[in-house]
Amino acid sequence: MTDEVYLAVVLDVIVAPDVRGSGVGATLLDTIVEHPRLAAVRSIELVCQPDLIPFYRRWGFTDQVADSRLMRRTTDPLLLDRQAD
User: Fold this and answer.
1) How far apart are CA 34 and CA 2, in angstroms?
2) CATH H-level superfamily of 1-64
3) Burial (Cβ within 10 Å: 0-12, 13-18, ≥19) of residue 55
4) pTM of the model as a whole
5) What pLDDT shows up at residue 65?
6) Of 8, 20, 45, 51, whose Cβ has the fewest other Cβ atoms within 10 Å?
7) Residues 80/44, Cβ–Cβ less than 8 Å
């Protein structure tokens, strides 16, 4: 999703476990960050699991995003962090 000026948000970049490490994810990210419609966008953002931070850093993504926080509204108890209670 993007407004093509200020922000683009990447959602659901999921590579099947049996093809991870084959370059599929890298190809997807190359295609996204090099897309002409995103050339002038000030910020491309995504959400990932902590173990994928080094992967996304290869494209200049950082987990240093000031005071931004992920928020969620869900009815799925598996998606709730019980430690936050």
Assistant:
1) 14
2) Gcn5-related N-acetyltransferase (GNAT) (3.40.630.30)
3) middle
4) 0.79
5) 87
6) 51
7) no
Q: What residues are paired with 10 via a beta bridge? A: 46
19: helix, strand or coil: helix
Secondary structure of residue 36 in the 3-state scheme: helix
- Count of residues for the chain? 85
Question: Alpha helix (H) ranges present in 9-83?
Answer: 24-33, 53-57
- Report the C-alpha gap between 42 and 61 in whole angstroms: 13
Q: Does 58 score more than 70 pLDDT?
A: yes
